[in-house]
Write a structure and sequence with these properties.
Number of strands: 8
Strand content: under 5%
């Protein structure tokens, strides 16, 4: 034990030298002390002055041998919550430090610390929940008090410490597999393209930026296949071995909390009566599905032209050809999709390079946009602690994320930023999270969240709808002139649609799949088959090679191993246009919605700040009404935004006699349509229906 402690001290000292003085360590001793220190907090508050009749009654209730008699004293509840909030601030801060340290330096030590912190936080959470359940909160008259208890006491719980430990281990292990995943070419191998020189040594590529760069920029069918399959082989199967255990443990905790399964907990966050979220999002998707099907038909034809004999003009699209590792957004194949090829593309990456932009400057540009609306600049600690560039000397989780440390207005962003237009938009998205954090930072911790999870995702993207306008890019000197021809408008809208419209079915199907997994309707042996059934049904996509039950392709997407609910993105991609339209109205903009730029509008900024300041202190429908005047998600805004493009696509698809849709053949049938060409390329097909070469 002494040797282990000495090694830990040595590691800490080395880390301080290695990472600099800005490195922080979570206060493990503080977290360890919480259960013992505050185990009797409620009793101490209730019994501190027995000369008062109310406190005497409260104290007597807590002295009873059972928990059936509930406390009705709302003053006591407020006093208890004040103490709890102070503890939650510090607990959240320590947890954020541990999570940040691991995400930005993926050592075994930091992994162990993160798991230990998660365990200690959960141990405190058990005590807090137990004390909270002693109140008769469902009959409280104070509506704010009622809402705090309602939010605080919902969710699952582990009654068994060993189950909690196992859950923490499995969760951390899956993230570790994903974060450290690599695709390697052995020494001397020529594949994926025959023109490539054989490697002189083993070459390993990480997801960001190497693999993503290849699949975004390569137009070689086989090279993209190598990358697509390689990433899923590197992380999918390993994560798939752990995922059933993770699902089972989540459901155990959910059952302990009185829920049918973990999916019900996720849906509860949206406060739709009678667990009605799934019905709501299904109905919303039906309203926008025609837009996606028109886009799908057009892109399928362009891909068939790009890859002759490789794409079925009337069926689904092979999933590795859309410029994105998960085919969730298609903006990277804009060069293939560009409607008018002789009209300039809206991409200011070259201008950023010429003007010698660096990563910090890109973040300053985003900050300037928010400040122009009258919102807050990033705090000093943001610039001190954020990770804006991928380190060369350690493993990190590159997936862009914003962190709220819940204390002293400390916010950070972790991102392996590249100097290009796409990351400029992503920076605005992540900084939108930070602005949201700052606007509700004075609320109790329990209210420091988005009105619903989709709100948080929508805020930065709403700003990005202004950021991508030629008007704004011209104002910040990244475009010399503003092109306003019909052809330029269609090109511009196509580029946005490849990110926004293309994403909608993906944003829906991930949690549609997971909800069925949590319900037990999809068994572990069927995880991958059902995954591709959903991708075919909603996206019109098929895997480029046969997949088997041994594969776990869902695990190739970060939000699966991280356990991050995904329906928030679907909601976000709809309400951001609703937000945008409302803010444009506040800014006094008149004209087509897609041309609106709210930069420098204090009126729009004030309206946005007011909406953000409520956090989750009231139902999201109330908060939506504050900005938009409506209490429901309205798809008319996204339809209005893309009206020029949709009119053009309908005419273009009709002119080319395109089939709108893709049929619903089984995955195996669709793969047969690819098989002949794959045979010609010297692939072999084994008895387990797996491709290898």
């Amino acid at each position: 034990m002494l040797r282990q402690n000495n090694l830990a001290i040595v590691f800490l000292l080395l880390s301080l030298v290695y990472l600099g003085s800005s490195y922080q360590f979570p206060d493990i001793e503080y977290l360890k002390s919480l259960p013992e220190k505050y185990d009797s907090l409620l009793k101490e508050l209730a019994c501190k002055d027995l000369t008062k009749r109310s406190q005497l009654v409260n104290c007597e209730i807590l002295m009873l041998p059972d928990d059936d008699t509930l406390l009705t004293d709302e003053d006591l509840a407020l006093e208890w919550l004040e103490q709890i909030n102070a503890i939650e601030v510090e607990k959240s801060y320590q947890g954020s430090i541990a999570g940040w340290n691991y995400a930005t330096n993926m050592t075994d030590y930091n992994q162990e610390v993160k798991a230990n912190v998660s365990y200690l936080k959960a141990a405190w959470g058990t005590i807090k929940t137990k004390q909270g359940r002693r109140f008769d909160w469902q009959n409280f008259k104070n509506p704010t008090l009622y809402r705090i208890f309602n939010l605080m006491l919902r969710g699952g719980k582990f009654d068994d410490s060993k189950q909690r430990e196992r859950y923490n281990y499995v969760s951390t292990e899956m993230i570790d597999i994903y974060g450290k995943g690599q695709v390697c070419r052995p020494k001397g191998e020529k594949y994926p393209t025959r023109e490539m020189e054989p490697t002189t040594k083993k070459e390993c590529l990480t997801l960001e930026p190497e693999l993503e760069d290849i699949i975004a920029n390569s137009r070689d069918y086989d090279e993209n296949l190598w990358v697509w399959k390689g990433w899923r082989d590197a992380v999918g199967r390993k994560i798939g071995e752990l995922y059933p255990d993770w699902v089972e443990l989540n459901n155990v905790a959910a059952s302990n909390g009185g829920y049918a399964d973990e999916g019900q907990i996720w849906r509860e966050l949206y406060e739709i009566p009678n667990d009605g979220l799934e019905e709501m999002v299904d109905a919303l998707y039906e309203e926008v599905k025609p837009m996606y099907k028109q886009l799908h038909a057009f892109i399928r034809r362009r891909l068939a032209e790009q890859y002759p004999g490789r794409v079925n003009r009337y069926g689904p699209i092979p999933a590795h050809l859309l410029g994105n590792m998960w085919a969730q957004q298609w903006n990277n194949i804009y060069d293939i999709a560009k409607p008018y090829r002789d009209v300039d593309i809206i991409d200011v990456t070259d201008a950023m390079v010429v003007q010698k932009y660096n990563q910090t400057h890109m973040f300053r540009i985003a900050e300037r946009f928010f400040v122009s609306l009258g919102m807050d600049p990033m705090p000093e600690n943001f610039w001190k602690y954020s990770m804006l560039v991928k380190p060369k000397d350690r493993d990190v989780v590159c997936h862009g994320s914003a962190y709220n440390f819940m204390k002293d207005r400390e916010v950070r962003i972790k991102m392996c930023t590249e100097v290009d237009m796409e990351d400029l938009q992503t920076i605005h998205h992540e900084m939108g999270h930070c602005e949201y954090y700052l606007q509700y930072s004075d609320l109790p911790v329990i209210f420091r969240s988005g009105a619903n999870p989709g709100f948080h995702e929508a805020v930065g993207d709403t700003i990005a709808l202004s950021v991508v306008t030629p008007n704004y890019l011209h104002k910040i000197n990244l475009m010399d002139t503003i092109t306003s021809s019909k052809e330029a408008t269609i090109n511009y809208q196509m580029k946005i649609a490849l990110s926004k419209i293309a994403f909608l079915p993906f944003g829906l199907m991930i949690d549609k799949w997971r909800w069925q997994v949590f319900r037990g309707n999809i068994k572990p042996e069927d995880y991958n088959d059902k995954w591709w059934e959903y991708r075919l049904k909603y996206q019109g996509l098929v895997p480029p090679i046969a997949r088997s039950s041994k594969d776990f392709d869902p695990g190739a997407k970060y939000h699966i191993p991280s356990g991050t609910p995904y329906i928030r993105y679907f909601v976000s991609y709809l309400i951001q246009f609703q937000f945008h339209r409302a803010l444009c109205k506040e800014a006094g903009f008149e004209g087509p919605l897609h041309e609106c730029n709210i930069y420098e509008s204090k009126e729009a900024g004030n309206a946005l700040k007011e909406m953000l300041s409520y956090g989750t202190s009231q139902p999201w429908t109330d908060t939506l009404e504050v900005l938009t005047g409506k209490r429901k998600i309205d798809t008319s805004a996204i339809k209005e935004y893309f009206e020029p493009l949709m009119e053009w696509l309908e005419k273009e698809n009709a002119r080319n006699n395109e089939q709108i849709g893709w049929g619903m053949n089984k995955i195996e049938d669709e793969l047969e349509l690819l098989a002949e060409k794959l045979w010609e390329d010297e692939y072999q097909y084994n008895e387990e229906r797996e491709w290898w070469y």
